[in-house]
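haha ok so turns out i had the wrong file open the whole time. this is the CORRECT one, sorry everyone. sequence first:
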Amino acid sequence: MSYSVGQVAGFAGVTVRTLHHYDDIGLLVPSERSHAGHRRYSDADLDRLQQILFYRELGFPLDEVAALLDDPAADPRAHLRRQHELLTARIEKLQKMATAVEHAMEARTMGIDLTPEEKFEVFGDKDPERYAEEAEQRWGGTQAYAESQRRTARYTKDDWQRMQAEVADWGERYDALMAAGEAPTSPTAMDMAEEHRQHICGWFYDCPYEMHQGLAEMYVSDERFKAFYDSMRPGLAEHLRDAIRANAARHTG
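then structure:
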């Protein structure tokens, strides 16, 4: 059984012009010609075309494809094994590329659409993407998480810098408050706790007093959060937790 050039083009998903070119350069010469001189392709020709397209998909130049296929010492099974190895390597490379793209998508979803230089400039050594996966696992199904994603997706580098500046200013003032010996239950400390809550509400999601108290407990129990707050001043995490509790009681009691 033989096939016309149009049929083969349809089977293989290539153009008739491509098949004519392969014939002209001797890469795929049809086994037969019709009485009118038209190209007719056999099943063996289709097998060779499949091999050609495999190698072309893998980026081999046509002259190298011809050399590979016309090697008299080559076993057809060896071609398949070679192609399988090459395809497996390519799949691994594509998977790595896909993972990189997924990370980029995750960063964009988190609103961190910055270059490495910009990230360092804004966040220093505190990588904003480091705990993105854990954050989604812990809070991914919550309304607060969804709202945070929606808001931060719009933030620019300037927005992140402004936010960081607010945090730094708040931290300096809280440090001074503790240095002055203010108790967590003092009006000044409670006002600072309320400012902390308003910062969350303004930048990320609505944070009612009950939720704020839950966060306060995490600031002490989670060593990473505790390290962040205690880096502003040793003991600040626990002091803030107590101030948040007192502030919540002041507003809800």
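The first helix runs from residue 5 to 12.
again sry for the mixup
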